[in-house]
Amino acid sequence: MNVEHHHSTSDIEAYNPFQGNRLGIDDCPVVTSAEIGERSVSVSFAGGVRHEFHHQWLRHCCYCEACGNPADGIRFNTVIDVDREMAPMSAAVIDGDLELRWPGGHVSTFGTDWLFHHAYDGAAGERRKSWRPITWRAELADDFPTVPWADASDGGAGQLRLYQLLRDYGIVQVAGLGSELERTEEFAALVGPIHETTVYGRIYDVRAEPIAKLGAKTGMAQASHIDDAFAYSQPGIDIFHCLVNTSEGGMSTYVDGFAIAESIAADDPAAYELLTTVSIAHIRRHPGEMDMRNRGPLISLDEFGRPCGIRYFDRALAPPDCAPELMDPLYDAIRLYNQRMVDPAFVAVVRVEPGSGMLIDNHRAMHGRTAFDPSAGRHIRLCHVPRDEFHARLRELSRTLDPTSHDLHLPQGSRNA
Ligand SMILES: [Fe+2]
Ligand SMILES: [Zn+2]
Question: Based on the domain organization, do 241 and 201 belong to the same domain?
């Protein structure tokens, strides 16, 4: 997307159409009644669901034209404008919307869809944290999530399918992308703007070269790994575009880091505890150019205690630096994780055809390849797009095509120490 230059208020309004407290979702239960209580308003919806909304929350979250606009998140009132003891004077239901009148005459109107999707008690909070990854092992290769390019780029249901497979499996293949060089950027643009890095540049051509700086540019096997685990913000989505493959060797290997995390949590809780709490360090040094380092747990957990990111690249693991009494158990735990990464039960082996593309969540799924003859002309193009840009497009497309999933909490990726 191009940078927009706004010259007047009307330009801004044309670009960010005013929405008030509305989402534009049709099939939400309407508000049927509202009752003002001590500190909150109790709102009933058709079908019998009831949600409580705190007075100060309602006043602060008013996005009327005087208060702000959720279309772009711009707001004019802040929490210090809201008195803790403020309470609405009246609550009325008008055409399925909730209308509140405040002391001083301010009026807030909450669309039923906005209110329903922002409820934070009871089943509402549970619904938003209901997303779960579909974890997989070697068998994924038998029925690999794949979307044809024509569907993936349709701007509608096909594209949403692509996004949802990437969200749920952490990997999705696009078939029939074509082998033209410019297709790499068109493919990347489906999920967001390309993230340039020192190691890969903007678009990286993975081909065997006589003098290779990275292992990728040889014919050697590459064990499955996370790209650039040494960066504070490790690349988000790997975009692979296969132009030429070999008929022998050069198989792609994929491993689901969440599946390994799940298995270690079940088999060895003490190792899981170490991998989720003790920082490991990664390093990449290009002498005379850069010395990039990161510290963080191998398995990141989210606020609900669930894996939300994996950060492990065996060949870039820095000398461990932890409390001496943790050194042996930490090595044991890392070794357990690494053994499962190369355990055939966990490794899905796939032949990627020329003209195909692959999207991989680099905070979850690891990628590698088997050895191949470096003279065979194998050529893969690679670039990266941040995960937040991907999730941003997924939510926006979902809002109209699959509204009940547009506001689910998604894993925010590997965290830093
Ligand atoms: Fe890689
Ligand atoms: Zn307002």
Answer: yes
